[in-house]
Structure formats: structure tokens, C-alpha cells
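One thing: can you check what follows?
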Amino acid sequence: MDVGTYVGLLGSFGMIIFSVIVAGQSLLPLMDLPSFLLVVLGSYFALNTANGIPEAMSMWKIMGRAFKLQTTNEQSIIQKMIAFSEKARREGLLALEDELEDLDDEFMKKGLRLMVDGTDAAIIRDLMELELSKTQDRHAGKIKIFDNWTILFPGLGMLGTVVGLIGMLANLEDKASIGPNMALALVTTLYGSMGANLFVIPIATKLRKHDLMESNVKEMVIEGVLSIQAGENTRILALKLLAYLNPTARKVLEAELLKD
């Protein structure tokens, strides 16, 4: 569970409620079911138009990833790569074949399998980078759905406001209702702005962060596989892989791997 996502969403919406209460206002004028349905469901149905029903439906599953803690296990991968490098230098590349079945990382397993099978380094790089590129394309396509939603949310909010203003202007003879009707018309704009800025944009940003983390790990694996195949010194391999870590994690692992 990614606590930051929960804290961020609850905190941002909570601060709006808090500010309204502190200002001495009532929350009731901000609650309007028709406005909420127009903005949320209206924008979601527009997503179906833009992306198709399967893609719009898959959005909910993808959104769930933003609420889960992304674990990439870079340190574990580096340690495995170092161990493979040491064994390959002692016993040869074919000695790694028995180690492959125990690997959970399919991307690493595929790269090492190609290496053990004697595939040329240029072909290994091309194949692994192609898989990385296509993974990034798939992620970008999913994130694009949320980018579309960030536009539709405020757009439907403004549309609701226009609808409300039309109703208000059609009944100008009742001057007592102008103020309440104007406030109600603006509620849809509020919902659109809140939905986009407090929910959809942060979720899309979190998904982009996950994509960058996964891409970073895959790039590290590619570098590791090719270095092992080239028979590079294990210390050189460690320095290359450590460059992919953030400074804090790098310092901890560097002290362990390069202590000699």
C-alpha cells in the first residue's frame, strides 16, 4: 500500500473542507448530486468516446496501481548480477544456465538466456531495448487516458456552469433566486477543478513515476547482461549498476560491494 497516495488524496480534499469550515461557511452549498454526476460520469463517458470502452474500463485497474507501493528491487538485482558475473568469470557463461530457472524477473531471465545461448551482444541489446520501448509505449497509452481525463474534468465542469447559468438567466424575474442559482452553477466548475487537480493529475503523475522506475530497472538489467557477456571486471560492473541507484541507496550498497 502506497501511504503517500492515501495521505495526499485525503489531505488535499480535507484541506478544502477545513478551509470552508474555518471561513465560517457551510459545506451544504458545495454538495450537489446532479453537478457531481454531470462532471464525473459525463467526463467518464466522454473517455469512452475518446478511447473506447475496453480502454476506459481498464483505467480503473490501472488506477489501482497508484495506491500500491512500487517495488523495483534494484539492490537485489544488482547483487544477483554481481553474483552471476563472478560465477561467469570463474566457470564460464554456460555455468549460469542452472541459475536461470530460479529468477523471478522475466526480463532479466530473457536477457541472460540469450547470453547463455551465445547470442551476439548487438542482437541482445536490440531485443531487450525493443521490449523496453514497447513496454514504455503501453504505459504511455494507459497514462494518456488519464491525461485526457484531466482535460475533460474541468471541461465538463464549465459545461455544467453554462447549463446552470442558462437556467438562471431564463428566470431573471425571480431576483431572490439569482444568488443561489449562481452559486449552484459554479459548483460544477469546482467539481471539475477538484477532480482534475486533486485526483486525476496526481494519479497520472504517480503512474509516470512508476513507469520511470520500471524503465530504470530494465535499463540497468540490459547494462548488466551485456557487461557479464563481455566478461568485464566485476568491480566495473558494480560501478555501472550502482549509477542507476539514488544517492542514498547507492551509498549503502557501495559500502557493501566495494568494501575491498
